[in-house]
Amino acid sequence: MPGAMTMERFSIDSSAPRLVAHVFYGGAHLFQPGLFSKMGARALAHPEAERVTEKVREKLRREPIEDFRIDFEDGFGFRSEAEELEAATRAGIEFARMSVAGDLPARIGIRPKSDCRMARQTLDTFLKYATGAALPKHLIVTQPKIAKVEEAKRWREMLEEAEIRFRLPGMTLRHEILVEHPNAVRCLGEIVKACENRLDAAHFGCYDYLSAMQVPAPAQALDHPYATFARWTIQQVMLPLGVAVSDGVYSQLPTGEDATLRRAAFEGHKQQVLRAIGEGIYCGWDVHPGQLLSRFAGLYEFFEKHLSDVRRRYQAFLEAQTRATLAGTQFDDAATVEGLMVFLRRGISCGAFTEKDIA
Q1: In this structure, are residues 36 and 103 in contact, taking their beta carbons and an 8 Å threshold?
Q2: Please, which residues have CB within 8 angstroms of residue 346's CB and are 6 or more apart in sequence?
Q3: Could you give the domains of the chain?
């Protein structure tokens, strides 16, 4: 019936793919069993942990890491080719062990170096040992420093060939791009076409991008106007295609003995999380366990602050059988209710509340 179809449009689909709230990049040389629970424990032992709610602490006890990249690039540093392949071997072995033990996060992948020759060697070495156990349905392979359409095409072909060599089901290896250069922003649509339907996500590399735009280091920030423009462009291209978008890393880490600086880093990161939500970006990448506290503190603060009002407006709209409603000064029709549904889906995905809370 037409009416039923209309109501269906405004239901929250609990079977929809999960939307992760962050991606953690960790050096490949540090990848080992127990890593994720240790990161949660380190976050909870951090001095700023006393400033977050019990709900955030419970999240970090239960699932500190939602998405992880075994990093052979910036997080690995400048090492010899032999050292990198040795690290890829160890990471592959540990990955297989963790897969058997059920110790992998909801999503996981690797970030090789941008050089295609070295990336192929690292990926092949990793897969040689990681395939000793069942791989996840999707393994993300992040392409850093992308600047040209041809680079995306070569990377896609590398993933296709690896699937054939290791007898993996098609589309097991998902393509993720790290947008760090103005050239990539200018030809983003063509890059997406070159990735074909293998593209899984696009991450923003803020500081490489701003450096390429000749912005000096002291003036670089996630909310710099150039960074805002780049993210807007990425969103415009990716969202209609259903490709996930992640904000960049916040460069001030909550470390050291100075409590004032540590607290400023905590608050600064939380504010950037809230700024990203206002831009429609609910995921960012983190590099320090202390950032797990500020990320989920910011996310949960936002969703808990607005849940009561959003729930009231959403339920009033449903009770009116999807006809426009007016509650006080707030007018809601199909367009504004779409925004309410974005809020509800994202809040459920990050664990700020459950479906029961909106029933």
Answers
A1: yes
A2: 19, 282, 303
A3: 19-304 (3.20.20.360)
* Token duo for residue 268: 């600064």
How far is residue 317 CA from its own chain's centroid?
A: 32
Nearest to 156 by CA among 217, 198, 111, 211: 198
Claim: this prediction has a pTM higher than 0.70: yes
Confidence of residue 37 (pLDDT cuts 50, 70, 90): very high
- The Cα–Cα gap between 78 and 74 comes to 8
d(CA 289, CA 254): 9
The string of pLDDT tens digits covering residues 320-347 is 765 556 555 566 667 788 889 999 999 9
CB 145 within 8 A of CB 111: no
Q: Estimate the crossing angle of helix 289-319 against helix 35-45, to 10 degrees.
A: 90
Place of tokens 């080719």: 81
- CA dist., res. 120 & res. 258, Å (int): 43
**CB neighbour class for 75 (10 Å; exposed up to 12, middle 13-18, buried from 19):** middle
Residue with tokens 């070569």: 154
